[in-house]
Amino acid sequence: MLFRFSLYGFLKNQKYFEPVFYLILLQEKGLTFTMLGILIGFGGICVNLFEIPSGALADIWGRRKCMIFSFISYISSFILYYISQQIWLLFFAMILFSIGEAFRTGTHKAMIFDWLRMHERLDEKTMIYGYTRSWSKIGSSLSALIGVAFMLSWRSLNPKAEYSHVFLLCIVPYSIAIINLLGYPKELDGERKRASLKIVLHHLFNTIKDAIKISQLRRLFIESMSFEGTFKAVKDYVQPITYLMVMSLPVIIIFTEMEQLTTLVIYGIYFIMDSIASIASRYSYRFSFIVGGEERGCRFIWWMTLMLFIIMAPLLYYKIYLGVISAFIVFHFLQNVWRPMLISRFDTYSRPESGATILSIESQAKSFYILIAAPLLGFVIDYTNSGGFEKNFWPIAAMGIVISLLMITTSLKMQRT
Fold this sequence. Notes:
By secondary structure, this protein is an all-alpha fold. The protein has helices at 2-12, 21-28, 33-60, 63-83, 87-104, 107-118, 125-157, 166-169, 171-182, 197-213, 215-234, 238-247, 258-282, 284-291, 294-317, 321-349, 355-383, 394-416.
């Protein structure tokens, strides 16, 4: 099963559009940074609407069925993103993509933890989850290589070809992922019950009650919103920053078009980030052991994140793009050390039969944060800069510093009480 779990992560991260998603929306679809933030925030709203019920349905109706439905929804969104020329179609594509996220997030993690529980290997949860997550990141790094190879070869045939074509390429691995999920054993569906509205709502109510009543879970939800939400809201700004860096390079371009160099550099940066992320995920459990446990490990990562954003602030303000990109790479590393420890802590404090629902609530809390942070960040970037594509992205560092300080301060207060 470890092979199937790892293959799932590998395939679901074949998002060949991811390194250029913001550029597609900004340049090919004509969005401003404010509209970009609104679209990303709208995705957060959609995930919020479907997230918790999807987790409850996964625990009751069957996790495999929900996962397969998720991938069908993803594939539908890829087709819409490719063909959309109007903003309203982009929002509809985001709805379908968010449904895919809602029915997937948390469900597969719960299946992994159930399998570990069945085989009495729960003490290995941080190591096993980190291992499968590392394969997800290997998938991401390989998708960057496939994406850049596709784009460069496609543009050599058609110099005016758009980035949007990579959406169609994603359909192939996502279809294979459905076949992989069909081979999962039925026992990983959990204790399925008859899926009536009353049962779903009762299950949902009990899980939410646990999330509110148990102080450790409350804290974990806040941490996830703050760290994961900030990461999701800012990570892809590396795309316009890289674009601006390439356009400012005083070099002799050996490519037929400047766009080819931009494509190569952006996909190359994502390859580096995801390769490093894979190593970070795989050895997160060792970091946890060295620092004295998952609680201490997460606190240490918060301090490192604060220092990183403090360093990033002047780099962004003075447009030292190479330094900014290096900081984004470090941020990816920290997030992938932190994430396996966080998920393991969630499993420690939640009931086994509510695993998918608890992790869906976690994802929803993160999406709620993105709903607020992404549009606000896009608006501040537009508001503090004049018109045009070239912006000063210092608000990214400002947001990271404020959030990190809040989390560190509240963590210190909790330790004293």
